[in-house]
Design goal:
This protein is an alpha+beta fold. The chain has two domains: about 35-135, SH3 Domains (SH3 type barrels, Roll); about 145-310, Porin (Beta Barrel). The protein is about 15% helix and about 50% strand. It is built from four helices and 17 strands. It has helices spanning about 1-30, 115, 130, 155-165, and strands spanning about 45-50, 55-60, 65-70, 75-80, 90-95, 95-100, 105-110, 130-135, 145-155, 170-185, 190-200, 205-220, 225-245, 245-250, 255-265, 275-285, 295-310. Strands 9-10-11-12-13-15-16-17 form an eight-stranded antiparallel β-barrel. A five-stranded antiparallel beta sheet has the order 5-6-2-3-8. Strands 4-1-7 form a three-stranded antiparallel beta sheet, with no helix packed on it. The radius of gyration is 30 Å and the shape is rod-shaped. It starts with a helix and ends with a strand.
Length: about 300
């Protein structure tokens, strides 16, 4: 009989411990911003705030890797308490889902519930048709300027051209590119327009060309530290020629065109200035120099540079 009483007391102690654990878990779940029916809601205390930055980005996740769009300066919003894991973020409900905005982009205000017309017990959701602006409709925003220095090999036909004309061993090009990029913050795709200059030179001979380079790309890795972009360009000659001893040697000057395929790593993408580096391949077709068996330029391309974002 004493053994039974002892076991019952132990069982009651275990139940008490389990009850404390259950209450702790329930408190954690209460902060999940989810209703019983699965719909999002800002549980607990909520606050009226106003956007104070020119472009307050709204994110779909707490890691701030999936922007939904942004709210313009002066718009009113309704937010919850700062997140436990990231005190720089506060939650709000948009498009029927939980989203997040940086606390530095808002200023808390005192305002009546009637001003925002929230119903008791209803999800605190904004009329984002009027509040959310879609950056993809604004070509004047989300633009960057990329400037890079590059070096690439032109292949055996470039080397044969230098050997034939000036008896020199040369097949490497150096140059620069100035590139305008328009990137959508609500997606990963981007496009650009660039001007590219390349020069291969040896004693007594220079071979150079200017290229117009439209491009399309996609960001396959996106984080606060770096972005990894893959993109392709179709390069078309604006000017091309060979100079020997300071004079034009060959007429016509020729034409060059073809694709580039590059991988580019952009560091600190959320800052105004982004250093970047990349590798790729160029493969061009050449016309105008058939007499010298010069019909192509092909080789590995390496580049480094600095980008500036126009916010």
């Amino acid at each position: 009989m004493p053994l039974i009483i002892y076991l019952m007391r132990k069982f009651k102690l275990i139940l008490a411990i389990l009850g404390l654990l259950l209450s702790f878990v329930t408190m954690a779940v209460d902060n999940s911003f989810t209703r019983a029916d699965g719909s999002p809601a800002l549980t607990g205390e909520t606050f009226t705030a106003r956007v104070i930055s020119p472009k307050a980005v709204v994110y779909a996740d707490e890691n701030m890797l999936s922007p939904l769009g942004y709210i313009a300066n002066g718009k009113g919003v309704r937010v919850g308490n700062p997140r436990r894991m990231n005190r720089d973020l506060v939650p709000l409900v948009v498009y029927g889902r939980l989203a997040f905005i940086e606390i530095k982009d808002i200023r808390y205000e005192e305002s009546s519930e009637d001003e925002y017309k929230f119903k008791r017990g209803a999800p605190l959701e904004h009329n984002f048709d009027a509040t959310m602006e879609r950056p993809e409709e604004k070509m004047s925003q989300n633009n960057s300027f990329y400037f890079s220095l590059h070096r690439y090999t032109g292949g055996s036909e470039v080397q044969n051209l230098f050997t034939t004309l000036v008896n020199a061993q040369e097949d490497s090009f150096i140059g620069f590119e100035a590139l305008f990029v328009h990137r959508q913050p609500t997606g990963r795709a981007f496009w650009g327009l660039g001007i590219d200059y390349s020069l291969a030179s040896s004693s007594g001979m220079k071979f150079s060309y200017w290229l117009f380079s439209p491009s399309l790309g996609y960001t396959i890795v996106k984080s606060k530290l770096y972005n990894l972009d893959l993109y392709a360009t179709l390069d078309l000659a604006l000017n091309m020629g060979i100079t020997i001893d300071g004079s034009d040697f060959i007429e016509p000057k020729g034409f060059i065109w073809g694709p580039q395929f590059n991988a580019r790593m952009v560091f600190f993408p959320q800052e105004k200035f982004h250093p970047f580096a990349g590798l790729g391949i160029r493969k061009y077709m050449v016309s105008g120099y058939e007499d010298y068996a010069f019909k192509s330029v092909s080789g590995i391309n390496a580049f480094v540079g600095l980008a500036m974002e126009f916010r």
